[in-house]
Amino acid sequence: MHGQCRAWRAKEPDQREKALRTPAFQKLVTAAGGPAEVEAYCQRLVPETKPSEPAKVTPSDSAKGKPSPSGKAPPSPPRPGHPVGG
Q: From CA 10, how far away is CA 30, in angstroms rounded?
């Protein structure tokens, strides 16, 4: 059930209720004791270590080769022997 709780939590809050009506989550609903109990059940089973927040990229993360906040990779340097801009 750990994986089902993580999958359910990964959904947007407005999609979670709909997801609980699908066959994929029926075992989770049954184990929790009903759709209204899923949130509390998953909290006990897989406690969140900190509140859900958007991931923040710090300058030190960028220096470690992580994607830039714009989501674009920096341009690669020109290869030797190839004209630049042409």
A: 19
Q: What is the DSSP string of 21-65?
A: TSGGGHHHHHHHTSGGGHHHHHHHHS--SS--------HHHHHTT
Q: How far is CA 37 from the centre of its chain?
A: 23
| CA–CA separation, 50 and 20 (whole Å) | 24
How far apart CA 42 and CA 25 sit, in angstroms, is 12
- Mean pLDDT (the chain) is 76
Average pLDDT over residues 33-40: 95
- The alpha carbon dihedral of 8, 11, 17, 19 has a sign of negative
Q: What is the pLDDT of residue 62?
A: 46
Q: What is the pLDDT of residue 5?
A: 94
